[in-house]
Amino acid sequence: MNSRFGKVGVLYGGQSGEREVSLMSGQGVHEALVKSGVDAHLFDTGRQSLAELAQAGFDRVFIALHGRHGEDGTMQGALELLGIPYTGSGPLASALAMDKIMTKRIWIEQGIPTPAYAEVRNAGELDDVASRLGLPMILKAPHEGSTLGLARVEQADALVQAWQQVVRYEPVALAEQFIRGRELTIAVLGRGEQARALPIIEIIAPQGNYDYEHKYFSDDTRYECPASLPADLAAEIQALCVRAYRVLGCEGWGRVDVMLDEQQRPWLLEINTSPGMTGHSLVPMASRAEGVDYTQLCLNILAEASCKVPLNPAQPA
């Protein structure tokens, strides 16, 4: 028995639109930890309550939740209050990273390249936004992941239909300049000055359509890891992603999605603070390229579990 971690909860499932993926991630992590002798237990936050979590006696938890109420700072805040160390980023960094609009605001202020954007609050704004950003254009739900609530708009007459698709998920849409080029993703591990990027992955999806099906279930998508890039360009992109991770206050692990345009300029799209851990997932793929297998990756992430919000010192009587 690997007793150094104590009793470990693997939080999975949840209530978001990414529940199906989270169930797969959690099962994979749980299996890897048990195989390593860890006293690990699955805990479905979509079916079990916070009261049950408080009573479970976990010494630390591995967050394998994706999307709302798991990756957005809410669960992280609850774990802080319960005093249970957890993997990944803290409440503030998780909330900022989950909000694609807030992420862009911070990255722009810090001089990190990200595509031009606009917030769209009603369908009447679509034509004006399209004229400013140009077509094709991306419309996406600012708080969803796994390409849920995302539409690529090629023609002006498709704007309203795309808008209707996105607002099924939330009332405000993020409109984003479309960047034509190569799709890359970069995993980052660690915290602060010790944070580092793993090898870059290039995603080559059929017709460039890296949607929910092609992410998790299809074998049609190809991946190149490490991506075929000049060494100096790869190092530049990795350093940029580590900086983007740090300025949001991320720690533990994360994954940054990047477009490399036809002039070889990187544009950062978003960051995931609780990336997938399924058989198709990209952080394990990048880790394997460094010689660290899935099981050891899970153990390494678990080893860094902590509470992030310091308690106030006791007030004098």
UniProtKB/TrEMBL annotation:
Cellular component terms (Gene Ontology): cytosol
This protein's record includes keyword Magnesium: yes
Occurrences of domain ATP-grasp (ranges): 104-303
Positions bound to Mg(2+) 1: 257, 270
Molecular functions per Gene Ontology: ATP binding; D-alanine-D-alanine ligase activity; metal ion binding
Pfam families documented for this protein: Dala_Dala_lig_C (PF07478), Dala_Dala_lig_N (PF01820)
Keywords, ordered alphabetically: ATP-binding, Cell shape, Cell wall biogenesis/degradation, Cytoplasm, Ligase, Magnesium, Manganese, Metal-binding, Nucleotide-binding, Peptidoglycan synthesis
Cofactor remark from the record: Binds 2 magnesium or manganese ions per subunit.
This protein's pathway: Cell wall biogenesis; peptidoglycan biosynthesis
One record GO biological process: peptidoglycan biosynthetic process
Entry's EC annotation: 6.3.2.4
Cofactor(s) the record lists: Mg(2+); Mn(2+)
Chain residues that bind Mg(2+) 2: 270, 272
Domain of life: Bacteria
Catalytic activity: 2 D-alanine + ATP = D-alanyl-D-alanine + ADP + phosphate + H(+)
Residues the record marks as active site: 18, 146, 281
InterPro entries: ATP-grasp, ATP_grasp_subdomain_1, D-Ala_lig_Van_CS, D_ala_D_ala, Dala_Dala_lig_C, Dala_Dala_lig_N, PreATP-grasp_dom_sf
Enzyme class: ligase
Subcellular location: Cytoplasm
UniProt xrefs under PANTHER family: D-ALANINE--D-ALANINE LIGASE (PTHR23132), D-ALANINE--D-ALANINE LIGASE B (PTHR23132:SF23)
Family: Belongs to the D-alanine--D-alanine ligase family.
Entry function: Cell wall formation.
HAMAP family per UniProt: Dala_Dala_lig (MF_00047)
Name recorded for this polypeptide: D-alanine--D-alanine ligase
